Amino acid sequence: MFCYQCEQTTHGKGCITVGVCGKTPETAALQDLLVHRLKGLAGWALHEKATLGADTAASLDFFRAAMFSTLTNVNFDESRFVDYVRTADQLTAKIRSRVAAAGKPPLEAPSVPWFLPHSHPFAAMPSTDYSVDALAAAGREVGIESRRSLTGDATLIGLQELVCYGAKGAAAYAHHAALAGVDEQAATEDLMHAMAFVCTPEAGGAPAVLGRALQVGEANLRIMKALETAHTSAYGHPSPSEVRMGPREGKALLVTGHDLTDLRTILDMTAGTGVNVYTHGEMLPAHGYPELRKYPHLAGHFGGAWYRQKVEFQKFPGAILVTTNCVLDPPKGTYEKNMFTTGETGVTGVSHLAAGDFSAVVARALELPGFTAADEKAADALPPHLVGFGREATLGAAPAVLDAIKEGKLEHIFLIGGCDGSEGSRRYYQRISAMLPETSMILTLGCAKYRLLGQDFGTLPGTALPRLLDMGQCNDSYAAVQVAVALAEATGSASVNELPLSLDLSWFEQKAVAVLLSLLHLGVTDIRLGPALPAFVTPEALQILVEAYKIKPADLKHPEEDLAAMLQHG
Ligand code: FS2
Ligand code: SF4
């Protein structure tokens, strides 16, 4: 196997024997094959649209769900990938037949150095053998190693992967948005264009591939906007709200991941049953939405960031529903029987529930003992966390923020957010946030916020403004961008880059890649990125990004030097 799509990749180079995430070589090869087939499906669906005016809706729907399944920490279940490949083959075969039946020319598989002619995605035919072994063997033929050795150009293949990872992250958000009621078909189609593009001769040069990556960032902005619209239409605009960070006595059900629709279904199904519902991981911002926190049995939040789940889930005396990433394989003989996956998530040996069909997880919550009165008492001492600084709430505070800037009470704003992870190097974000001057504010979002929890940032001296504003999930980066643009306009700044605003971002997986591409598309410069730079960006590609966008690696050993530089230059 060879996989380097996430930040924790082995030795900062690539996972080659087994994933640090736990992904097996078989699953890695199946995912490689699926991505290859999705490139083919994208090409053929767009070809059918171009030649016959056909609707891409059916392909789109599957495309974004299947892309999402290949993100880091989403799905480890081989059998599910066999099904995804089979469906991709069936959809592509049907398109081929319709194009042929209409007497239109087939989609040509152009000659490119990174695919052998018979293994070009546009030429792929349905498998004759859907065993894991056969599909994994086919996947190994089209993986990154194969394409790098065919071209001898690690920089080009790395940039093509940048397009692919950005498209994966954006597809995941598009999938969430569609499930939540806003279907961004045009932007999803742009992601299909991007995946088809990397199969064409135009993707043979670094500038063109980088340009396409920025287009993925632009599509992702539209998608994050759609997701924000879906969330706020269904659940109201987030508003500041204190979250209890521990349990109450009684039966318990934990909902993890990002999917607010699944959380609401669980809240409806458990109403009146005596089961308390808790959020975990990226679900913490759910408490900011009026239509979710109105449920009295949404009792609080349990646990920290995703990487602590193997320890924390063993201590949870109730049932657990995994709606999206990040999920990890439970240690054998622990909480497998209490955990359920849904949507695109999957773990071998863990029950998978169809969308909205959550009676099994509720039944399991009723069987398990739940929390005791002593657990509740111990949790009473935990400080609450303030969530709910979505776009409206933060812009509502904008006049006070502008006054604070004018009066010299607010001198700098830091965006410290993104992903969290298990590496000790991520303590950089705790260390730097503890050093920030009192005259600064911090916007945070994504699971990186867990690096800031437990520190009391208080209020800006002489104001009632909290210094830490939790804007929500990683996808709420859209709201953060809108706030920055509004602040730039209100202060008469030429662009976001002129603001006393510094972005110190922590990345881990492919949604973060999509967000980064959106920021670059907007022309945001001087972003600090850590803890490690992407392994798929070679030194040559990094040089391009540094020259164009002044991207900087986080100085993990000397956060005080990063801070000094940010205060001076932004
Ligand atoms: Fe955190 Fe994991 Fe949000 Fe990422 S819970 S690293 O997938 O999407 O952020
Ligand atoms: Fe390694 Fe990350 Fe790929 Fe998992 S997703 S195999 S940890 S690079």
UniProtKB/TrEMBL annotation:
This is Hydroxylamine reductase. It holds the Pfam family Prismane. GO terms for molecular function: hydroxylamine reductase activity; iron-sulfur cluster binding; metal ion binding; peroxidase activity. InterPro entries: HCP/CODH, Hydroxylam_reduct, Prismane-like_a/b-sand, Prismane-like_sf, Prismane_a-bundle. Gene3D superfamilies: 1.20.1270.20, 3.40.50.2030. The keyword Transcription does not apply. GO terms for biological process: response to hydrogen peroxide. Keywords: Cytoplasm, Iron, Iron-sulfur, Metal-binding, Oxidoreductase. One of its GO terms (cellular component) is cytoplasm. The keyword Oxidoreductase applies. HAMAP family: Hydroxylam_reduct.
